[in-house]
Structure formats: structure tokens, C-alpha cells
Amino acid sequence: MQTLTADAFVRRDRPPPLGADEIHLCSMEFAPGTMPRAVADAARATLDRLLRDYAGTDRTLEIARGAHGKPYAPADTGLDFNLSHAGHHVLLAFARGQELGVDLERDERRLSLLEIARRFFAADEADALERLPAHARLPCFLQLWTRKEAVLKALGQGLNFGLDRLAFAVGADGEVGALQRIADEAGPVAQWRLCPLQPAPGLVGALAWRGAARSLQSFTLAA
């Protein structure tokens, strides 16, 4: 799937109603230097408001967490959501009857990319990273990391599942391609959908779900 960039996000005060075959992806950008706690509090307030809107209620929906920390709303089990934040940016994803995961990372220098890849990624992915010129390693690493995280969050497993238990194709140019394999309990590779994201300069992200293709609607909300 083609990378979803900043120009695909439509500015709205509130998203429209969520269709049964849709996924809504909402981006929020806070002023640089905003304290992490302030970002987290504002993101939670927006999540509460959107859950009320989508559920059609004035009552705040309780948010609980699954065995591996994935949030859900017990009062409306047909409404699925996930969120991620990086610095002063936040992404929130919503769907009906479809577990999904989203991950967002900042494009920052990381000194031990190969060490991390050797420890946590599949061996062929780490090999592909090592063959790249130094300047191409960070973009490739972040593409791999965010895709893997999004899949594991959609599974409700998080890092406990193991980043090495799914692997993506990596081209000679460092571009990450399709999901090539995944552990049997996560379902067939062909069932997985991945959407790479670049909601703002300096950010890399991914949205993942296992199921039929859906219409993806993307919005920028006021922070």
C-alpha cells in the first residue's frame, strides 16, 4: 500500500460518523516543546471525546487494558481503537469490528541500530540492514520497527509476541516491502493489511489490521 503522507490528512474539528467498512486515522500535532505529560493528557481527552462520538453517547466510556496492555472499551466491544505518540505528535485509529494497531516513531539518530536488529529482528532483516550504506539504515530500521509494532498491537500482544516472529521483505535500496512470514497463530500472511504512514516530516509510522480491505479516512484534529 502507498505511504499515507501529510497531504492526505483532512483538517476537521471532528471526524464524520464511522462506517462499518471504514478505518479512521486521526493525527494531532502539538507545539514543539510541549511536555510529554501534557501531550498524553490531551491525547487521552481527545480519545475520550471521539469514543463518545463514535459510540453515540454522552457518557465517558471506561477504558480497560487487555492481558498485554492493549486498550479497549468494555462498554462497546464492537468499537476498536489504538493510539501511538512520538514527541509532540499523536495518532489515533478507529474501526468497527476490526482489531487494528498503529505505531509512530520519530526519525532520530539511533547509535545501535544493527545491535537492536540483531537482537530483536529476523536474521534476514538484520542482514539486509547491515548491507545498506550507513545513511540508509535508519529509515529502513524505522520502517521495519513501526510495521512490526503495528502488527503486534493489532494482535493485542505487543513486544511479548516477538519482533523476530514476523518478517518483511527489504529491498537493496532499503525500502521495506510486503510481509513475508509470520508465526502461525497470527494467521496467514495474506490476511494482513499494512499502510505505511508519514503524517509529518520526521515521522515514520504504520497502520496494520488482519482482515478484509477497508476504506481508510484520515484527518488532522486540533491539538
Automatic annotation (TrEMBL):
Keyword Nucleotide-binding: no
4'-phosphopantetheinyl transferase domain: residues covered: 100-175
One MF annotation (Gene Ontology) recorded for this entry: transferase activity
Keyword set includes Transferase: yes
Pfam (any one): ACPS
The organism's place on the tree of life at top rank: Bacteria
UniProt entry keywords in alphabetical sequence: Transferase
Gene3D superfamilies recorded: 4'-phosphopantetheinyl transferase domain
Family of the protein in this entry: Belongs to the P-Pant transferase superfamily. Gsp/Sfp/HetI/AcpT family.
Protein name as catalogued: 4'-phosphopantetheinyl transferase family protein
Source species: Dokdonella ginsengisoli
